[in-house]
Design goal:
alpha/beta; TIM Barrel; 9-stranded parallel sheet; 37% helix; globular; metallodipeptidase activity; Pept_M19; Metal_Hydrolase
Length: 320
């Protein structure tokens, strides 16, 4: 069964090896086992479309963050698209339907707007490089909003609202994963295309990175969608271990809130340090699919895996 995965951090790993951080030898996107989302694993797992996030660690000095972002965007184009003919750059979600058998779509995204500072020209540059989804924060505060780990818990700034407005104008997804609760509600008020690229249900696992029930229902009501994340601490409270059944509890719960047609997957592979049992890299995706098929009709599982996102993406394109 084919999969759309809306979040991974392979670009950060590739950048680190280029800079010789934590690794003496550059990684090969096609085969390096250090990459949970290398191309061979994406193929084995049936991943049809993989989103690749530009993410800058918060300890990178402010005046260096834009350069780091450009490096990761360059690696997307050179190491993932340029060296692998099977990888096709998706610049519009309608292009996913044009993928040929054996091809994998690659979508560029931004996780945290720190790198643009207060400069919308930089955001427009990222759009031109192919970014189709923008997460305003990581876990802390920046000039757009507070993140889920910021004790203050404030919402969108005036500049953050400008970013959301520019996303709307360009039919770019505004990603609510990592936002503070107040920032989530502010985004929901202002964003035309909100979605959660990698978040779970807080009532199942009480973690600030997960969404409370009222937020999930409001996101669904706005026509947004939520892609579950495979990071064990977001699946089981205070745990570095989780089973596929633990993960499915989040799916069951979101479905009970009306989310059956709004669910998808956002693994966070290459950005997590512990893994769901039998789901430790993209090549094991079908283990999740097989378990879901024991509880849900095939049509519903195909929705989780691929069709739900495509149905919403087509509405975005039609809206423009």
């Amino acid at each position: 069964m084919k999969i759309i995965d809306t979040h991974c951090d392979a670009l950060l790993k590739l950048q680190h090896t280029k800079r010789r951080i934590d690794c003496d030898t550059p990684l090969n996107f096609r085969t390096s086992p250090e990459l949970e989302t290398n191309m061979l694993r994406l193929k084995k797992g049936g991943v049809r479309v993989q989103f690749f996030a530009i993410f800058i660690y918060p300890d990178i000095p402010t005046d260096e963050q834009w350069q780091h972002a450009l490096e990761q965007a360059d690696m997307f184009h050179s190491e993932i698209i340029g060296k692998n003919p099977e990888m096709k750059h998706i610049r519009s979600f309608t292009e996913i339907d044009n993928l040929k058998p054996g091809e994998i779509g690659a979508v560029l995204t931004l996780e945290g707007a720190e790198c643009i500072g207060n400069d919308l020209t930089k955001l427009r540059t990222l759009y031109r490089l192919g970014v189709l989804s923008v997460g305003l924060t990581w876990n802390y505060a920046n000039l757009c909003a507070d993140g889920a780990g910021e004790a203050r818990g404030a919402g969108l700034t005036a500049f953050g609202k400008e970013v959301v407005a520019l996303n709307n104008e360009n039919r770019i997804l505004t990603d609510v994963s990592h936002l503070s609760d107040q920032a989530f509600w502010d985004v929901l008020e202002h964003a035309d295309y909100p979605f959660a690229s990698h978040s779970n249900a807080r009532s199942i696992c009480n973690h600030p990175r997960n969404l409370p029930d009222e937020a999930i229902q409001a996101l669904i009501g706005k026509g947004g969608f939520i892609h579950i994340v495979f990071n064990p601490p977001f699946i089981r409270e205070n745990s570095e271990e989780a089973s596929i059944q633990d993960l499915i509890r989040h799916i069951d719960h979101i479905c009970s809130l009306g989310g059956e047609k709004y669910l998808g997957f956002g693994s966070d592979f290459d950005g997590i340090s512990s893994f769901v049992d039998r789901l430790s890299h993209a090549g094991e995706y079908q283990n999740l699919i097989n378990e879901l098929l024991k509880s849900y009709p095939e049509e519903i599982v195909r929705g989780f895996a691929y069709d739900n996102f495509m149905n919403h993406a087509k509405k975005i394109e039609a809206h423009g």
